[in-house]
């Protein structure tokens, strides 16, 4: 069975060029020399052991407590235990497409190809059965960890006449040193340094990954920081001009941004399996194998530490710039930041799989940003703003789920029975979600109408009647959003739509102009 999973980024098989040890020599290699290919980071761009650990932690978190005991028995025993308890979907692993194409070409030419990996046999044999081109599997067996010199010893015993090898990391240097026509796939820095020291020139390099900086920008989702501009609303709508509250708002914005990026990474790590089954989410950096889960976990820790540091410094900055506006509750913002972080992690772990609960939590996260902005600056969040935000953002949460379901419906004929992997919805729920979403959107506009006629608005806006001009703008944006979603033309994240759609940006400018004219 062949893998049809395609991945983004650079997909190039590079030749070293003619000459001794170059591509020409590789092409003229004796066909009888067996070709051995590594699995983790080579044939597959991810680390299958880490993938399996994540799946196990997701399915049965209690097993994590047993990890120290298993690891004390040795790495091979640990791999066997984890692989026996959790099985990743090998059909949707992020295969290195240029390498896979080369291996199939060699297989068609009659060459013997072996999957030689430090992964456990239980997993390696499933991968080999899926790809369908391997003459055999050499893997860890629960007692021997088949990496580095252990793998070389097995190769020399199994292939006394010589072997070719394709690897990706520093432990592969001994094998590349002793093999015929060494080849590498997405080689890391340590392997490149090791090959230079050993005088190894690979005859082929199979690259299938984007630039790391692009992958990281994708992983931390800077565009999602647009949601955190809600933090500025309390001080903005209260017409505060003092330097302290604005500086505090900027710090709160950065703190929330770092926390949001950290929780997005946590979400992506927990959703590896589900994302690999999604038409678009399979291109996320961790699902596609472009970034390691270990570096992702380290980034989460760093970002959260920086976010907390900003939150701790915030009250002092506000007091220094605007002593008369010192916060009555200095750690109020930090408390809301903690509520946000806990809520988003709970959402990633469990709540996102609970139908209707998930959209209520999502809308609540928007309102938390408003409350956090108020706590950071000492600006009260009016009940009107809170009520409007709850219904308005609940509509956006519904349209997000609706667009995901609509996208699935367009790709499947048996609509009633299709469900989103990792979610609690079926495509048969589409009409119900549409009714919920449009109703809550209209409810937010009604709340805004009541606010315009309230004494609070009259006291803040000299020409408050001009705020009525916002109604057609709000209705046009909301109705167009749902119109596009019903057509299947909406990106499943309304925030991305709002900051990239030209008409949305134009309507946003009109809103700003109307509000300024009402002052």
What is the string of SSEs from the N terminus onward? EHEHHHHEHEHEHEHEHHHHHHHHHHHHH
The average pLDDT score comes to: 88
Give the fraction of residues assigned to helices.
55-70%
* Strand element count: 7
Beta-strand portion reads 5-15%
Distance between the termini: 67 Å
Number of helices: 22
Radius of gyration: 28 Å
- Strand neighbour order, sheet with most strands: 1-7-6-5-2-3-4
Poorly predicted runs are: 1-11, 17-30
Structural class: alpha/beta
Largest sheet: 7 strands, mixed
Gross geometry: elongated
Report on this structure.
This protein has about 525 residues and is α/β, with parallel strands linked by helices. It has 22 helices and 7 strands. It has helices at about 25, 50-60, 65-70, 75-85, 95-110, 120-130, 150-160, 175-180, 190-200, 210-220, 235, 245-270, 270-275, 295-320, 330-350, 355-375, 385-410, 430-450, 455-460, 470-485, 495-500, 500-519, and strands at about 10-15, 35, 115-120, 135-140, 165, 185, 205-210. Strands 1-7-6-5-2-3-4 form a 7-stranded mixed β-sheet. Strand 3 (about 115-120), helix 6 and strand 4 (about 135-140) form a beta-alpha-beta unit. Helix 12 runs parallel beside helix 15 (about 330-350) and helix 15 (about 330-350) runs antiparallel to helix 16 (about 355-375). The longest helix has 29 residues, at about 295-320. The protein is elongated, with a radius of gyration of 28 Å. Mean pLDDT is about 90; it is low at about 1-10 and about 15-30.
Topology, element by element:
Layout: E1 10-15, H1 23-27, E2 35-37, H2 48-59, H3 67-71, H4 75-85, H5 97-108, E3 113-120, H6 121-131, E4 136-140, H7 148-158, E5 164-167, H8 173-178, E6 183-185, H9 189-198, E7 204-209, H10 212-220, H11 233-237, H12 243-270, H13 272-276, H14 293-321, H15 332-349, H16 357-377, H17 383-411, H18 430-452, H19 455-460, H20 470-487, H21 494-500, H22 502-518
Parallel strand pairs: 2-3, 2-5, 3-4, 5-6, 6-7
Antiparallel strand pairs: 1-7
Helix pairs in contact: 2-4, 12-14, 12-15, 12-16, 15-16, 16-17, 17-18, 17-20, 18-20
